[in-house]
Design goal:
- It contains 16 helices and no strands.
- The chain is mostly helical.
C-alpha cells in the first residue's frame, strides 16, 4: 500500500475521532471548566499557579472528551432515533464500540496522569468523578431527572480543585479528603448542580419529542409544562447560592458585577426558551458557557483587584 493511500485513511480516522469527542463544539468542556476554575481561584484566594491551571484545564477537556465516548456507546441505540444525534460516529457505525471505548479509556488515562501530579486527596476524588461519569449515560433508563446525575458529574471539578490546592499535607485517605475539601466546596457543588439542571433541561427540551417516542427519561419530560419556569428557578438558585457563598468569602464589587452579567444572560435565555422552539432552546444551551465565564471573571477580577 502506498504512503499516499495510508495518509488519507489516517486523516479520515482522526476526523472521526475528533467528531466523536465534539472537538468543534467546545461549549461542552467550557461548561465544566468555568466552575472548576472558579473553585481553583476561591481555594487559592487568587491565581492558583500555572501547574494547577494547566492540570485542570487540560484534564477538563480530556475527561469531557472521554465522557462523550462513553455516552455515545451507551446511547447508540437511542441516538439513531433522534434527529440531532443520528449521525454521530458510533451511532452510524463509522466508529466501532470497541474503538470508541479504547479512545475513551486512553483519554481518561491521560487525564489521570495529570491528576497524579497533584496530591493523594485529589487522586482519590478522581475515582469518584470517573464513576459518576460512567454512570450518567445509564441514569436515563432509571431516573426521571438524569440531569441531576449529570449535575454532580459536571460539578465534581469543584471539590477536586479545593483538594488540589489545600490537600498537599493531608494524611490518610478519607480523612485527607475531609481535611482538604471544606464545606464551602460541597456547597458550591450543590449550587452549581442547579446551573447544570438549567442548561441541560434546555438541551433536553430540544429532543423532547424524540425522547418521548423512544422512552428516554429527561428533566424536560418530567417537568412537563413547568419546564420554562423550572429552568429559570434553577438559574435563580444557582446565582443566589453562589452569590451568598462568594459574599461570605469576602467577594464584593467585581464579583457582584459578574453575577449581574450572568443574571442578564439568564433572563435573555428565558426569551429564547419560552416558546420551546428546538433551535432557540439549543441556542440557549449552547451559549450557557458565557454565563459561567461571567461568574468566573467576577471571582478572578475580585481577587486580582485586592492585590
Amino acid at each position: 500500500m502506498s504512503n499516499s493511500s495510508v495518509a488519507p485513511a489516517s486523516t479520515s480516522r482522526l476526523a472521526l475521532w475528533l467528531d466523536l469527542i465534539r472537538w468543534k463544539r467546545p461549549a461542552g468542556w467550557l461548561l465544566l471548566l468555568w466552575p472548576t476554575l472558579s473553585a481553583l481561584w476561591l481555594a487559592a484566594e487568587g491565581f492558583p499557579g500555572w501547574h494547577l491551571l494547566a492540570v485542570f484545564t487540560l484534564g477538563t477537556i480530556l475527561m469531557r472528551s472521554a465522557g462523550c465516548c462513553i455516552n455515545d456507546v451507551a446511547d447508540r441505540d437511542f441516538d439513531r432515533h433522534v434527529k440531532r444525534t443520528a449521525q454521530r460516529p458510533v451511532t452510524r457505525g463509522a466508529v466501532s464500540v470497541r474503538e470508541a471505548l479504547l479512545l475513551g479509556a486512553f483519554l481518561a488515562l491521560a487525564a489521570f496522569a495529570l491528576v497524579l501530579t497533584t496530591n493523594r486527596a485529589t487522586v482519590l476524588l478522581s475515582f469518584a468523578a470517573l464513576a459518576i461519569t460512567i454512570a450518567y449515560p445509564y441514569a436515563k433508563r432509571f431516573v426521571s431527572m438524569p440531569q441531576a446525575v449529570l449535575g454532580v458529574a459536571f460539578s465534581f471539578g469543584i471539590p477536586m480543585a479545593f483538594a488540589a490546592v489545600r490537600g498537599g499535607g493531608a494524611e490518610g485517605l478519607v480523612a485527607g479528603v475531609d481535611e482538604a475539601v471544606p464545606p464551602l466546596a460541597w456547597a458550591l457543588l450543590a449550587g452549581n448542580l442547579f446551573w447544570v439542571l438549567a442548561y441541560d433541561t434546555e438541551y433536553a427540551m430540544v429532543d423532547r419529542d424524540d425522547d418521548l417516542n423512544i422512552g428516554i427519561r429527561t428533566s424536560a419530560i418530567a417537568l412537563g409544562r413547568f419546564d420554562v419556569a423550572a429552568v429559570m428557578g434553577f438559574y435563580g438558585i444557582y446565582l443566589a447560592s453562589w452569590g451568598f457563598l462568594g459574599f461570605r468569602q469576602g467577594l464584593r464589587g467585581p464579583f457582584m458585577l459578574g453575577l449581574l452579567a450572568a443574571l442578564a444572560q439568564a433572563l435573555w435565555h428565558w426569551t429564547l426558551i419560552r416558546g420551546r422552539g428546538r433551535d432557540d432552546c439549543f441556542k440557549a444551551f449552547r451559549l450557557n458557557h458565557w454565563l459561567g465565564l461571567a461568574v468566573f471573571a467576577g471571582i478572578a477580577a475580585d481577587f486580582m483587584l485586592r492585590r
